[in-house]
TrEMBL record:
Belongs to the TRAFAC class dynamin-like GTPase superfamily. IRG family. One of its GO terms (molecular function) is GTP binding. Keywords: GTP-binding, Hydrolase, Nucleotide-binding. The lineage of its organism: Eukaryota, Metazoa, Chordata, Craniata, Vertebrata. This is IRG-type G domain-containing protein. Residues 34-214 form the IRG-type G domain. InterPro entries: G_IRG_dom, Immunity-related_GTPase-like, IRG, P-loop_NTPase. The keyword Transferase does not apply. It comes from the Eukaryota. One of its GO terms (cellular component) is membrane.
Amino acid sequence: MEASFASVKTDLMNNNTAAAVERIQRYLEEPNDIPLNIAITGESKSGKSTFLNALRGIKSKDEGAAPTSMTQTPMEVTPYPHPNYPNVTLWDLPGIGTTKFPADEYLELAGFERFDFFIIISDTRFRENDVKLAQEIQKMKKKFYFVRSKIDNNIRDEERKKDFSKEETLRKIRDDSVQGLRDLGFESPQVFLVSSFKPHIYEFSELHETLERELPAHKRDALLRAMPSFSLKIINKITVFQSRIKYWATLSAAVAAVPVPGLSAATFNLSMMVSVVTDYVTGFGLDKQSLEKLAASSGVSYDDLCADIKSELAKEKITKEFFMIMFISLASKAALMAAEKVSRWIPIIVTAASMGISFTTTYLTLSDFLSQLADDAQRVFKRALVLETSV
């Protein structure tokens, strides 16, 4: 990233603004071009489709959702593009060991080369075919993860017992799952306990963090942007968004200082702000669809979740007037800070003064927007967790 920005500085030093603009635009668009393919497999009725929809941040009744009918069992490898990030695709794989997908030919028939990692799901216990698949994936030097689904059903069933303990129930499910895999010959398995209907509790967030940690860097950004925020641990998402702000600010400054064919500074700044802020709102799960899904899964009303949102950015449709007010309010502060920001990010060239003010205003504005929405996301998820932890 820094090497890329160094090239931008060089272009600006040489007064080659058009080249700098092109380089920045290419860098900012790159995450949308990097494919991320996630394979999800398991036996029929194991909760694959519901899990797949949860990862895409949609409900089963939404358009494009994977069908969750108990009578519909996929017999083909079926792709489901992410609704907001089409470069991210989740693939519903038929259960291993079916007539069309025998265990010894499963990976080849499924087209294993295209997948970045596999998620193997079971709602009861993992079976011999699951272990065979995991071992074959290991041989191919690809990642896989065991997921024990429908944990909410187990908790609900156990709650009827007099001596019920949520912690003890979860421990027993984990121990049984791990021991079952060991008995089938799989050493040191890691199993994630999840509920696709309540992704903000149990171990969806631990699974998410493990995927982030183990994916290559260029794939990690695609995952971070596309996956819903399942927990209060959103620092990685903030880091990804923050790292791009200097590019947006430099692009804004370059367009403002030296006209580039086809780009108006005013038009660019408006469309850029709308695009970036929309990405923040969706990325933090503060859009209406995400909040409705969180309300349904947590039991906290949609209105109560919205009450914790302070920023107007996530409340109303952003208008030109809104951005004008924000820019005016930050302009004087930006002018005072321009020298410091320019010395850090953009080289001193003929247009340094005008570029500095434009750069700093954009930089401060987007940083402020990001901070507001990150704080809102923290408050919303804390509210959603209160009811769960008090039950």
